[in-house]
């Protein structure tokens, strides 16, 4: 015996919390992609020469923010998946160990 014990209930709770965060990220991704847009006209009249460059910078920043949110969501999903795998492996090991003890009894 290796002398360690895993708290599978804690792992299960962690997976559920991470899934909740990942689900909430969907709304954040939608906001970053679709609800932060500004039209060229909102940045100034045709007389305002910098409006075009401001609009381009805004579009670039919007794309960058969406990319960051997508990256964060992917990282959260990976941690959620891996934590779930560890949880399932511990449960399988506990089940196998209990079965082995029952056979010996």
The tally of strands reads: 0
Helix percent reads over 70%
- What is the 3D shape? rod-shaped
Catalogue the unreliable spans: none
Q: H/E order of the elements?
A: HH
CA distance, first residue to last residue: 19 Å
Number of helices: 2
What structural category arises from helix and sheet content? Answer: mainly alpha
Q: What is the gyration radius calculated from CA atoms?
A: 24 Å
Oligomer: single chain
Largest sheet: none
Mean pLDDT over all positions: 85
Estimate what percentage of residues fall within beta strands.
under 5%
Descriptive terms for the model:
105 residues, 2 helices
Can you describe what's shown?
By secondary structure, the protein is an all-alpha fold. Helix content is 77%, strand content 0%. The two termini are 19 Å apart.
Quick take:
The protein has 2 helices and no strands. The protein has 105 residues and is mainly α.
Which helices and strands occur, and which strands form pairs?
Blueprint: H1 8-34, H2 51-104
């Amino acid at each position: 015996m290796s002398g360690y014990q895993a708290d599978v209930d804690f792992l299960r709770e962690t997976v559920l919390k991470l899934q909740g965060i990942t689900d909430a990220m969907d709304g954040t991704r939608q906001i970053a992609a679709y609800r932060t847009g500004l039209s060229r006209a909102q940045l100034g009249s045709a007389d305002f020469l910098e409006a075009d460059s401001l609009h381009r910078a805004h579009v670039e920043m919007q794309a960058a923010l969406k990319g960051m949110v997508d990256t964060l969501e992917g990282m959260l999903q990976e941690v959620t998946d891996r934590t779930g795998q560890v949880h399932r492996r511990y449960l399988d090991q506990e089940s196998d160990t209990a079965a082995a003890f029952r056979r010996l009894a």
